[in-house]
Amino acid sequence: MIYPTNFEQKIGFDKIRQKLINHTISDLGEHLVNELAFMTDFSQIETAILQTNEFKEICLYEDDFPTSYYINAASYFDKIKIEGTYLTQIELFDLKRSMETIRAILSFFANSEEGKYPNLQKLTEGITIYSDVFKEINRIIDKLGQIKDNASSELHRIRREFLQKQSAASRSMHRMLKQAQKDGWIDAETTLSVRDGKMLIPVPVAYKRKIKGFVHDESSTGKTVFIEPVEIVETNNVLRELEFTERREIIKILRAFSDAIRPYLTDLYSAYSFMGIIDFTRSKALLSIDLEAVKPSLVDSPQIDFYRARHPLLFLSHKAENKKVVPLDLSLDIENRILLISGPNAGGKSVCLKTIGLLQYMLQCGLLVSTNDTSVFGVFDRLFIDIGDEQSIENDLSTYSSHLTNMRHFTENANNRTLILIDEFGTGTEPLLGGSISEAVLEQLNEQQTFGVITTHYTNLKHFATASAGIINGAMLFDSNKMRPLFKLKIGQPGSSFAFEIAKEIGLSQRILDSAVNKIGREHVDFDKNLKIMEQEQRDLREQEKRLTEKEKHLNKVIDKYQNRLDDSLKKQKQILEQANNEAKEILQASNKKIENTIFLIKKNNAEKGRTGEARKKLEEFKAEIDEKNKKESARIDTKIKKIEDRRKYKKNKQKKQNKEEEPKAEKMSPIEVGDHVRILKQKTIGEVVEIKKNKLTLAIGSMHTTVKKDEVEKISKNESKKESRSVRVVSDWKPEKTRGDFIFSMDVRGQRGEEALQKVTTYLDEAIVAEASEIKILHGKGTGILRQMIREYLATVAFVKSYKDEKVENGGAGITVVHLD
């Protein structure tokens, strides 16, 4: 059920329908576009969506799909239902080409991979193009649409006789033309002319009596007449009679063909209906490509979960101008069924409302939608809209009266499967009265479990939405610094109209603005001001959260790199031990060879004392050389292994410390009381409870106050509140002096006491090793020898400190200890 009757014009679907018509290539497809209507059966909607999506794939990735000669020959079948009637030659040619198109479409799906286009292939079931019909058509007519000579034996005889007679008449005419030229009655360049199917000789008026015959025409100047010579009058009459005979034979052939296909008309109707559906579905697919539309997820229940939704018509107009449309994110479900949108004028409220209505209507008409494919669309049985000016002189209705008429229809007909769209709710009459009536209508619609999107400026409706289950506030964001709308929808809070800011921006005097504040009351202005402050603070928090997320990603990346380095170190440790083992084996083998060689020399020289002593001496020297090498190599390996172990222990201790800090402190939470700290679940904002009324809490967030439900917050300890408050501050003040992989950290401990400075050095070393810094500079005061000595003693105990040295600053105002990290 759609209300009102001009629903499509109000949301802009009439323009979508026209774009579909522009993509059709037959009046069959155009007819189906005009018949396109809102559907409520889930299986029908799903099938139409799947068919359109499959055809979109064909349009994008298939080049051989037939798109020519989508001719509606079905209109000819109504005529030949009556016996004795027949198709004309042109109609038969249209039938031939269109049936070839249908056969090509069927062949495309038959040859496609099984299961590739299941929903479109299902359309081909029961569609039959009989080969006998094709053979008969091709026997009668050629590819240019002409009746073939052999369509019947009689036609073949008639045309053969006609050609013979025509050839004889042509020879006679050319003979007489040449004789007249020879006699000088006509020019040598003159040729025969054909008028009304007869060959005639053009003759100047002065010589028209020279040639016996009948004058059939004359030139526009009257200087030339066209004569049919007496000699060929009879032949021309015979030719004319043969033409009549040929026409009668062709009609006979066409009548016989029409009689032959009359039993197949039911199947032919189905075939052409199939071709119309193909054209219709193709137009929907082409439009979806223009809109960059997709197939969302579908559920058979009332639900809206739009992600990056774009108004289709606005998207096309912006696309032509190379501009971007700000996408819309929106979710309505059984818990939050009605969205109340507030915000400044020209901020995008009406566009947001029309976007929701148009996309939902398009989907339930079987069209793809311009959202992200992760969006979820439900199905509604009824769509109601109240937008624009509906005043009527004929019905004696004012603008407000028309709005009330719509509200009456809504409240009488809405149910839990209805989606209502109301723009500028309550306007058109005295604000206080209009606001109260609107609140009562909203309350009634909420009780009826209706879904809806409503735009308003009324403060009482914003308060009502905050206090009512099933209704949620939304705001169109506005940049108060640049005084321009952002066209972004923020769910969960009401929006400010920014009336005073806009009035000030356009130059309204301050005296008038102050007077307006006094008239409306400071409390109302402060409420609007607090809304603006809340909007700005939430934008700041979102930006800060974004920055913290990026820093967390960077930190995780650094930790991963450090873990990889640790893994590499362990691998190198294993390689070093293997290398040392291999070298030891090589040394042992060399030693054995040396000993064997020495023994061989002793035996060879019969234990001659001189030679034996020389051999023993060389052996002792070799032994000493090996021992020295072993000592150096063992010391080098021990040093490397120690450094690897130190780094592993450092990493392990640091991880333990970090895990210990992250362990939540178990604390049994008591009921929430005034003074407790709570966290708003949806926003992760921390606030202090200042007032409790039934199931609602008034929270102090900085200098602002806000009201939330108890089930929308969780109680936290004061320590956790302090910790989370500190977590949004940047606690590290080091600055990298290089932008490449090796960072150099600089830190300043001037003016700090020994223990304090030493603690700071420890913290900076931790950050430096995590960030894989190569060097750190410690800036300390001139003459702080004790502090410098404490730092040096500490650095000597750190495993990953490679070396350090003291330097002086050029101006002599301070000293620097430069630490090189391994």
What attributes does this structure have?
single chain, alpha/beta, 7-stranded mixed beta sheet, 53% helix, flat
Textual characterization of the structure:
Helix content is 53%, strand content 16%. The strands form five sheets. Strands 1-11-12-13-9-14-15 form a seven-stranded mixed β-sheet, with helices on both faces. A five-stranded antiparallel β-sheet has the order 19-18-17-16-20. The chain starts with a strand and ends with a strand. Mean pLDDT is 79; it is low at 391-396, 662-668 and 726-743.
Rg (CA only): 47 Å
Q: What summary fits the major beta sheet?
A: 7 strands, mixed
Q: What's the number of helices?
A: 23
Q: Quick one: how many beta strands?
A: 25
Q: What value does the average pLDDT take?
A: 79
Low-confidence stretches: 391-396, 662-668, 726-743
Can you list the strand order of the major beta sheet? 1-11-12-13-9-14-15
